[in-house]
């Protein structure tokens, strides 16, 4: 563990999993840790001991392991509606345990590989098929 004495878990905006900076106030969303941009005042979110061997050097709560053991994503990318793992295991897998589509989403079987079980409502009735059933153009 890179920080044995300090619990760095925190909740960033929109209930996203985050990393707590030294100041005990700033909560950096998981996917902004080790992105080569310092979000903490002292840059602790980009330190070598944290980012030196991704994902192994990261605390476990910042990491989500996809069904395919070769792939991992940041914990705050789980259940974000996007197919970040490439096989939808971060959206539909039993480990992901995602709630049903939120208000900004339409539930269907998407045509695009980018989405898993919901498409953004802003794509509804835009003249382009995003659901196999065409429900995004006729119902939603």
Automatic annotation (TrEMBL):
SMART domains: LDLa (SM00192). SUPFAM superfamilies: LDL receptor-like module. It is found in: Endomembrane system; Membrane. One of its GO terms (cellular component) is endomembrane system. It is a single-pass membrane protein. The keyword Zinc does not apply. One of its GO terms (biological process) is vesicle-mediated transport. Residues 99-138 form the LDLRAD1-like C-terminal domain. The keyword Iron-sulfur does not apply. Pfam families: Ldl_recept_a, LDLRAD1_C. Keywords: Disulfide bond, Membrane, Repeat, Transmembrane, Transmembrane helix. PANTHER family: LOW-DENSITY LIPOPROTEIN RECEPTOR-RELATED. This is LRAD1 protein.
